[in-house]
Amino acid sequence: MDIGMLWYDDDSKRRLDEKVARAVEFYRAKYGVQPTECYVDPGQLAVGQQEMAAGVRVRGNRTVIKNHLWLGVGDGVQPTAARKPAAAGGRARSRR
């Protein structure tokens, strides 16, 4: 992954999987695709911690600064379009 979004979250009360979920939600809303990879400082990963959170693979990378998450679509992976919620009333409207 060469291009991604850098997310900062230093809330010590929030677990890593919660931080990842918030970042993934923002990424999908902003870019319209589901990220597949999330890199974090290796010190943020506990021994035996799950390698998946919010539908993305979480991996340690020593180039990522503590309290930061680097999200994006992995190399060779086709991005999946994020589903947008339907407008009120169940119908989407377009403007011309």
Output mean pLDDT: 84
Name the shape in a single word: globular
- Which structural category do the helix and sheet elements fall into? alpha+beta
Biggest sheet, in brief?
A: 5 strands, mixed
Rounded Rg: 15 Å
Helices and strands, in order, run as EHEEEEEE
Structure, described:
This protein has about 100 residues and is α+β, with helices and mostly antiparallel strands. The chain starts with a strand and ends in a 15-residue tail after the last strand. The strands form two sheets. A five-stranded mixed sheet has the order 1-6-3-5-4. Strands 2-7 form a two-stranded antiparallel ribbon. It is globular. It has one domain (about 5-75). A hairpin with a 2-residue loop joins strand 4 (about 50-55) and strand 5. It has one helix and seven strands. The longest helix has 16 residues, at about 15-30.
List the helices and strands and how they pair.
Elements: E1 5-8, H1 16-31, E2 33-34, E3 37-40, E4 52-53, E5 56-60, E6 68-72, E7 80-81
Parallel strand pairs: 3-5
Antiparallel strand pairs: 1-6, 2-7, 3-6, 4-5
Short note summarizing the structure:
This protein is an alpha+beta fold and 96 residues long. Helices cover 17% and strands 25% of the residues. The chain is built from 1 helix and 7 strands, in the order E-H-E-E-E-E-E-E.
